[in-house]
Every structure is written in C-alpha cells, then in structure tokens.
Amino acid sequence: MIKISFITTSTPAQTMKISIIMPAYNAGEYIGEAIESILAQTYPDWELVIVDDCSTDSTYGTILSAAKTDSRIKVFRMPVNSGRCLEPRLRAIREASHDYICCIDADDIVEPDYLTKIARRVDETGADIVFTINYAFGGDLGDRVERYASDESFDISRIYTGKELMPLSIGEWEFAAGGGCWNKELYMRCAATYRFDCANAFADEALARAIIFEARKIAFCDASYFYRMNDASVTHSVSVKQFSFINANRWIREFAERNYQDRPDVIDKARISEFHGLFDGLRLLRTLSPSLDRRDTSDIMRQLSLTHSQIDFAGVHGKVSPRLWAIGRLPFRMSAFTLGLYDLIRKALINTSGSRK
Description:
This protein has 13 helices and nine strands. The chain is α/β, with parallel strands linked by helices.
C-alpha cells in the first residue's frame, strides 16, 4: 500500500448532498482503501452506492462488511457480469438518491477534503460538472505519485461550456475526467439519448464526452483524485475488449462531424485520432495475438477493417506521418502486412545504429 499524506484545512460547506458512485469487479485487493478514503471525508452529506459486477474474489464480502459499519453505504449486485464499467456505473446512478454524483473507481482513492472542495465549487459556479486534479500512483510508478491531469499548463480557473471543452478530450485528454462531480439528471439524460454501436469497455469514455458536450457550465477545482495504475483492471485485461478504443474513436469522429461543422479543426483532430488508432490497433493485435483465440482475432480484424474503410485519407493528408499515410492507403490486408514489415525494418535500423555507437 502506498502512503499518501494529506493536510486537511477546509471547512465543510454543506450546501448539497452527493452520491458517490462506485462500480466494482474483482477489486478485493484495493476496494477497502477506496472505501476508507470516503469514510474519511470532511464533508458528511454523502452516500456511497456500490454495484458489484459479480466479482469472483473478496470484493463483495468487503463491500458488505463496510456497509454494516456505515448506513450511508448502499450495496447492489449485477445479475450477471457485464464485463465493463458502464452497466454497473449506470445501475449505481439509477439507485443514487441525490442530484449530484461523484464517480470513484474501486481501486482509486481521494483526499479527505475531496467532496468539500467539490461542493464549494458547485456552490460558487452553479456548474453542471466539476472536474478535479488527478494523480497517478502504483503500477510502473512504484512508490511515486505523479500529477497526470489536468495538465499544469491547463487553465483550471476558467469556467467552460461543454462544447468548448469537449475537443480537449480528443486524442490525448488535456484534462482529467476521472472522478469529479456530475449533475445526475444530465448524466442519465445523455445515457438515454446517446447509443453505441456495440458493447465495449470504452463506451463510458464516449458517453463522458457526450455529457461534457451537453453541459452548460463546467468548472474545475483543486481536489485531489488518486488514480491507481492497475494492470488488472477491465481496460488492461488481455482480451478483445482492449481493442474497443477502435469503436470509441469512430464514435468520437462521427460525433465531431455532426456537432462541430463550424470547427473544422475539431473534425480534423478526431479524424487524425482515428487514423492513429488504426495503427495502434494493428500493432496491439500483433503484440497480443498469441494470447487471443482465432475468433477474437477475426473480430478485431473486422473492426480494424471497418475503421480503415472510413478513414478520410485525403482529409488527413499532410497532417499525419507521410509513411503511415502511404501504408494506410493500401488495401487493408496489404496495409496491415506492410505496417508489420515497416516496423521490423525500422527496429532493425535502430538496433544497427545503436550498435555502431
């Protein structure tokens, strides 16, 4: 367990009630810490709604034990495992009693003043969404804690419209959407309005962008959310689900084309992101194919082929790597083969150059 020191200085500003939303699946090693960080909040007006996605480890038992110690903890269980975060998250939001929700993952933790700072910022701004400062710890970081979003060059003092902020999430997120505080009615309205082509582990990221787009006002505060680098999480498991970012990229590009016709720069950004996602997917498939069965490999290839067929190569010409652009222009199967050959040659050249030094 990594020790993170906190200095609590805030006075609780009890102006609103908050429902904390926590989907959980096989988080037995860490969920106790996540719950402890909520029980330590200086802001008392909260409830914690946990939905277990049919865990097979100690997660559910840990949740039930915690609920016996505090009546503000509400526990539910999915009838069958959904295999992604979105379904248990939406179930938890439906069960939530309050108008504002804070989404906290079962392997993450928050500082004691987290809810106090968020509530104060909502009271100051009337924002539909308040985002926080995220820090990464664990995993490859060892015992280090590193700020990873919102970037220090990003102006968190401003209040944004959703349409203004959403483009900053395309490609690399320039702000932290993990955690934070969301208007429940806005969240559920968008979840009912927007649909996705298929069930995938990144559907919640696509939905988050839609909610951001629809928000009237979005603010930031300096509350600290600590994201655990956990290779065992749903989005890091070796399976076909790891490739669902391909579908998310396609959805984001289509969304940008529909809603940002007055912002060609946003559409370009989404198309470029989808272009790079194609090659990221092909390279990831090459790395993980020994761990995937033939059916999953075929399904992934179909998804990549669909992406390839929809890329606007003329539109991204001159805005991406000319070598990758030329490879992408080939028929899909030949493009995949040529990319592998290109990467092998480039690796060999780099190794040869290094050996001569």
